[in-house]
């Protein structure tokens, strides 16, 4: 039988894992939504097909003739690098903030 401390630890760890899973899911949704932002309207279905087409193990699942070459260029050469850079810069700013909080002992 588990002690009360072990039960609290298990709940805390399981909540942390659930929180991490929810945050990763939210990040993936925002990532795909941000690929849709831009002057040229590209449907979500096409965005997902373009992303799937460019993944080495999944590219056989997508019919390449259904994707416009213009849409593919817009997503892969303009929007995707912009979104990836934004995610990297956001992670760097978060890391800098955590570092400053650690240095100044600000909880």
Number of strands: 0
The average pLDDT is: 88
**3D shape:** flat
Structural class: mainly alpha
Poorly predicted regions = none
Helix count, DSSP H or I runs of 4 or more residues: 3
- The helix-strand sequence is HHH
Residues in helices, as a percent range: over 70%
Main sheet, how many strands, which sense, barrel?
none
Question: How far apart lie the N and C ends?
Answer: 36 Å
Strand content: under 5%
Please indicate the count of domains: 1
The radius of gyration over CA amounts to: 20 Å
Subcellular location: Cell membrane
GO biological process, one term: siderophore-iron import into cell
Keywords: Cell membrane, Membrane, Transmembrane, Transmembrane helix, Transport
Family: Belongs to the binding-protein-dependent transport system permease family. FecCD subfamily.
What can you see in these coordinates?
Helices cover 73% and strands 0% of the residues. By secondary structure, it is mostly helical. It has one domain (4-103). The mean pLDDT is 88. GO terms for molecular function: transmembrane transporter activity.
Write the layout of secondary structure elements.
Blueprint: H1 4-36, H2 44-53, H3 69-103
Helix pairs in contact: 1-3, 2-3
Question: Main attributes?
Answer:
107 residues; mainly alpha; 3 helices; 73% helix
Short description:
The chain has one domain. By secondary structure, it is mostly helical.
């Amino acid at each position: 039988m588990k002690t009360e401390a072990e039960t609290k630890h298990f709940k805390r760890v399981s909540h942390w894992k659930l929180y991490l899973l929810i945050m990763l899911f939210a990040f993936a949704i925002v990532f795909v939504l941000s690929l849709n932002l831009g002057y040229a309207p590209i449907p979500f279905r096409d965005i997902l097909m373009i992303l799937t087409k460019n993944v080495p193990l999944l590219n056989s699942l997508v019919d390449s003739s259904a994707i416009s070459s213009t849409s593919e260029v817009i997503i892969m050469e303009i929007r995707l690098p912009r979104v990836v850079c934004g995610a990297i810069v956001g992670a760097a700013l978060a890391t800098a903030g955590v570092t400053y909080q650690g240095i100044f002992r600000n909880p």
